[in-house]
Write a structure and sequence with these properties.
five-stranded parallel β-sheet; 41% helix; alpha/beta; ATP binding; EC 6.3.5.2; ATP-binding; GMP Synthetase, Chain A, domain 3; four-stranded mixed β-sheet; binds xanthosine-5'-monophosphate; GMP biosynthesis; GMP synthase activity; 326 residues; Rossmann fold; globular; 2 domains
């Protein structure tokens, strides 16, 4: 009989057998897979695990706190937080091409993660310990997609540690390799991982960096975060979270249109709501959200975010449109 308790007991035994008394590191992204993988390894080997969270400044409102506070409080993991917000903004300055932005974010992520990992390896070495293992939240569908070979995990480019230098080679610990997403969620809940993390909708590694159409700047990030959190609040309030696959909010930062807000003419930016329904993100349909929910989101965003004077709805399926705009 499948139940999360059995999976946890089984994986805890396997992780202990694989890891022994070596040290382990894990990169946390704030998403469900890396969080549940880390929580499982923590349950198995406790303080032998150190997690690394790279704050690249491209997360949504509340997400860094979910990792730094709620996840730590509920699991007791050792967490190293790297505040790399300035570094990412500097690296992204002046860039508008989507693939270039993705590459820059991926490259900086690896640099920062590498530095943090090297620091952990060196600190452990001073105590005569060896950091031999790296946790990955690889799921069964990733294994199948990549041909199923051992260690052939389909690691998203921004988390790709395959390119780590020679002095940083790790063996992978992949406790979710046999699980589907809904099973990972059940295991996460059983382990006490916060619901906001367990039920988080997919969010791209490059984060808000690919939801600002145009150059990424601090001001634009703040505007997008303010609009995004309103959309998320209202979708949650309407009880729609589990019906929607995800709902990117996109800032058309280089587009302006005329509006009237308060007593004055404005010349602000549009945001796009992109609610989609999907099974696997390979194809998607636009979600027919109730008009009253759309109206509330639109009114709130234009009232509460002064830089935004227009809210538009994306009614394109995938294909031809991708889910993200970049
Ligand atoms: P698209 O836009 O290709 O997105 O229809 C499909 C799914 O993948 C997510 N996505 C990404 N995830 N790194 C990621 O980790 C990326 O660069 C990336 N681009 C898109 C997207 O949010 C959707 O769930």
């Amino acid at each position: 009989d499948w139940n999360p308790g059995n999976v946890i007991a089984d994986q805890v035994a396997r992780i202990r057998a694989q890891v022994g008394d070596a040290r382990v590191i894990c990169g946390l992204s704030g998403g469900v897979d890396s969080s549940v993988a880390a929580a499982l390894v923590q349950k198995a080997v406790g303080d032998q695990l150190t997690c690394v969270f790279v704050d690249h400044g491209l997360l949504r409102t509340g997400e860094a706190e979910q990792v730094e506070q709620d996840f730590v409080a509920s699991t007791g993991v050792n967490l190293v937080v790297v505040d790399a917000r300035e570094q990412f903004l500097t690296a992204l300055a002046g860039h508008t091409d989507p693939e270039t932005k993705r590459k820059i974010i991926g490259r900086e992520f690896i640099r920062v993660f590498e530095d943090a990992a090297r620091g952990i390896v060196e600190a452990a070495g001073e105590h005569g310990e060896e950091v031999k293992f790296l946790v990955q939240g690889t799921l069964y569908p990733d294994v199948v997609e990549s041909g199923g070979g051992e260690g052939a995990a389909n690691i998203k480019s921004h988390h790709n540690v395959g390119g780590l230098p020679d002095d940083l080679q790790f063996e992978l610990v992949e406790p979710l390799r046999a699980l589907f997403k809904d099973e990972v969620r059940a295991v996460g809940l059983e382990l006490g991982v916060p619901e906001a993390i367990v039920w988080r909708q997919p969010f791209p590694g490059p984060g808000l960096g690919i939801r600002i159409i145009g150059e990424v700047t601090q001001e634009r990030l703040d505007v997008l975060r303010a609009a995004d959190v309103i959309a998320r609040e209202e979708l949650t309030r309407a009880g729609l979270d589990r019906e929607i696959w995800q709902c990117p909010v996109v800032l058309l930062a280089d587009v302006r249109s005329v509006g009237v807000q308060g007593d004055g003419r404005t010349y602000g930016h549009p945001v796009v709501l992109r609610p989609v329904s999907s099974e696997d993100a390979m194809t998607a349909d636009w979600t027919r959200l109730p008009y009253d929910v759309l109206a509330t989101i639109s009114t709130r965003i234009t009232n509460e975010v002064p830089e935004v004077n227009r809210v538009v709805l994306d009614v394109t399926s995938k294909p031809p449109g991708t889910i993200e705009w970049e």
